[in-house]
TrEMBL record:
Gene Ontology cellular-component terms listed: plasma membrane
InterPro entries from the UniProt entry: Csc1-like, CSC1/OSCA1-like_7TM, CSC1/OSCA1-like_cyt, CSC1/OSCA1-like_N
Designated name of the protein: Calcium-dependent channel 7TM region putative phosphate
One MF annotation (Gene Ontology) recorded for this entry: calcium-activated cation channel activity
TM segment ranges: 12-30, 101-120, 159-178, 376-395, 428-447, 468-487, 516-535, 575-605
The family this protein is said to belong to: Belongs to the CSC1 (TC 1.A.17) family.
Short name of any one Pfam family annotated for the protein: RSN1_TM
Mode of membrane association: Multi-pass membrane protein
């Protein structure tokens, strides 16, 4: 069980780690050769250009202005200075709503923390219940647990303080949530009213179009909507299986890129023709003129594309039983998207059409029955994934006690006997171990969502986010609390009657706040600070720039900033809200650590949204409802 000293050591390690991450980031972002990584969004929007090519060779890659290094934390005020209306135009409404959730956490928990420390901490501290329990029932505790409700004796009138505070915290939280929801609703209305009209606002996705022997899918869709929506139907586009066509277009794009590269190279070499070999990787084979070769190849593949396009349009087998149907008004599209079209609920399924770049094309033609079976399979798979993950969670909780560590790895006994190492292990190791175990979970949940049959990338993210939160609730919260309490009070369980075990668990659960404090510091302090480095995009950009980039278009594609990971970020926020609201009345010690997380995350992600991430898909604040 972590003591106050262990928490202090862990806080020191994580604060130092966060500070080191910020220093490394400040140095990296000042270097000209990293400019396209840390300001990628500005490059893609045309708001920033490459540093000047003039000057010394070293200055093209390294910033030699030492005065700029003295202002290494300037990125923080830069991230905060952009007004919210301008940020909405720059990053999209969904990104701004996402940032407001962190600000909402500060508005909720700052007053709660002040009130809890002013009222509950003195009430909890001025008792000796845990000291007596340690002597009479072998209950394991530390000095930090004296700040929790576990230090209040049974049937004490002091519990009224906690009850009143619990109601006060709940009322305050509901009030702030209500005001925030009103604000976001108004923001969405203003955004939609001021935004230019988009085709997806007038379009509905229709799936499971029934086969008809007398009409093609296109004719059937047109006939159906002319009959059922005669005054509002505008046009439609059936979904085609154009995978082969897409491959040809991709191949042509690659050939065009090579042609641009050799034309640029030819222009630089002052009319000297460039020859290439046609063999493997250009190492052997017949020598040909590069420009003439790629012009001929592009002409050849263009003819193949035209032929394939005609086949896709004319071949009935390539037409999928799905279509995008457009209406004359948004109202008509809204009515169609939200109503059942026929008596058979498995046919003519309608929903709002995603915007074009948000469509997950692979899932458009999945039959209704298959969708139901897929979702049932994924529900069962998720249940077993959640259930069996309790095993590694129990292993992590065993690491939260020195006895558990020695039992798992006896050879570490000499090391853990050292006072400092003991503090590091108990205050740092459990949190980092849990974070490692959860590293691959988001990818697994996204694969499950794709198999389930959702038709847009944003809906895939919402489903994955929902499951991630349920997983956190069951495993990270409930399983950690129960298994952790069992491991810490194992000696007490073995030496008392069974009817006393529930009481012991009740005393132990508030004391599990120490584990969550260590997890918050690892994940919410050092983890959030580490995310600002954007190591994966940084490494991938330089690898692509070194080996794959041939033209300016290649360089733009190599930046690939992506967007905020809604499927991972939103469940983490919900977990911290859960921890804060659950532990506020029982262990107020946790609240300052959560406040640091929300403040730090708000600054870091505001910077990322301003300079790095692209706008969210479906960005009209719809993800706030999730």
């Amino acid at each position: 069980m972590a003591t106050l000293q262990d928490i202090g050591v862990s806080a020191g390690i994580n604060i130092l780690s966060a500070f080191v991450f910020f220093i490394i980031f400040a140095i990296l972002r000042l270097q000209p050769f990293n400019d396209r990584v840390y300001f990628s969004k500005w490059y893609l929007k045309g708001l920033r250009s490459s540093p000047a090519r003039g000057g010394a060779f070293a200055q093209r890659f390294v910033n030699l202005d030492f005065r700029s290094y003295m202002r290494f934390l300037n990125w923080m005020p830069e991230a905060l200075k952009m007004p919210e209306p301008e940020l909405i135009d720059h990053a999209g409404l969904d990104s701004v709503v996402y940032l407001r959730i962190y600000w909402l956490g500060l508005k909720i928990f700052a007053p709660i923390a002040v009130l809890a420390w002013a009222v509950l901490v003195p009430v909890n501290w001025t008792n000796n219940t845990l000291e007596m329990a340690k002597q009479l029932r072998n209950v394991t505790s530390s000095d930090i647990d004296k700040l929790s409700v576990s230090n209040i004796p049974e049937y004490s009138m002091r519990f009224w303080t906690h009850i009143v505070m619990a109601y006060a915290f709940t009322i305050w939280t509901c009030y702030v949530l209500m005001k925030e929801y009103e604000t976001i609703a108004n923001m969405r209305l203003q955004f939609v009213a001021s935004e230019a009209r988009r085709p997806d606002q007038f379009t509905v996705l229709v799936r499971n179009v029934p086969p008809d022997a007398d009409e093609s899918v296109s004719e059937l869709v047109e006939h159906f909507f002319l009959v059922n929506h005669p005054d509002h139907y505008l046009t439609h586009q059936v979904v085609c299986n154009a995978n082969k066509l897409a491959d040809l277009v991709k191949k042509k794009k690659k050939l065009q890129n090579w042609l641009d590269y050799y034309q640029l190279k030819y222009a630089r070499k002052n009319s000297q023709r460039i020859m290439v070999k046609l063999g493997f990787l250009g190492l052997w084979g017949q020598k040909v003129d590069a420009i003439e070769h790629y012009i001929a190849e592009i002409d050849k593949i263009s003819k193949e594309i035209s032929k394939e396009r005609e086949e896709v349009v004319n071949d009935p087998k390539s037409i999928m039983p799905a279509a995008f149907v457009s209406f004359k008004t948004r109202w008509a599209a809204a009515v169609c998207a939200q109503t059942q079209q026929t008596r058979n609920p498995t046919q003519w399924l309608t929903e709002w059409a995603p915007e074009p770049r948000d469509v997950f094309w692979s899932n458009l033609a999945i039959p209704y029955v298959s969708l139901t079976v897929r979702r049932l399979i994924m529900h069962v798979a998720f249940f077993f994934l959640t259930f069996f993950f309790i095993i590694p969670i129990a292993f992590v909780q065993s690491l939260a006690t020195i006895e558990g560590i020695v039992k798992v790895a006896p050879f570490l006994k000499v090391i853990v006997e050292d006072k400092f190492m003991k503090s590091v292990i108990q205050g740092f190791l459990p949190g980092i171990a849990l974070k490692i175990f959860l590293a691959f979970l988001p990818s697994i949940l996204m694969v499950m969502s794709k198999f389930e049959g959702f038709t847009s990338i944003s809906s895939l993210e919402r489903r994955a986010a929902f499951r991630y939160y349920i997983f956190n609730l069951v495993n990270v919260f409930l399983a950690s609390v129960i298994t952790g309490a069992a491991f810490e009070q194992l000696n007490s369980f073995l030496n008392q009657s069974p009817n006393q075990i529930p009481k012991t668990i009740g005393v132990a659960i508030p004391m599990k706040a120490t584990f969550f404090i260590t997890y918050i510091m690892v994940d919410g302090w050092a983890g959030v600070a580490g995310e600002i480095l954007m190591l994966k995009p940084l490494i991938m950009f330089h690898l692509k720039n070194a080996f794959l980039v041939k033209t300016e278009k290649d360089r733009e594609e190599a930046m690939d900033p992506g967007s905020i990971g809604f499927n991972t970020g939103e469940p983490r926020i919900q977990l911290y809200f859960l921890l804060g609201l659950v532990y506020a009345p029982v262990t107020p010690m946790l609240l300052p650590f959560i406040l640091v997380f929300f403040a730090l995350a708000y600054i870091v992600y505001r910077h990322q949204v301003s300079f790095f991430f692209l706008p969210q898909l479906g960005g009209i604040g719809s993800k706030a409802d999730s």
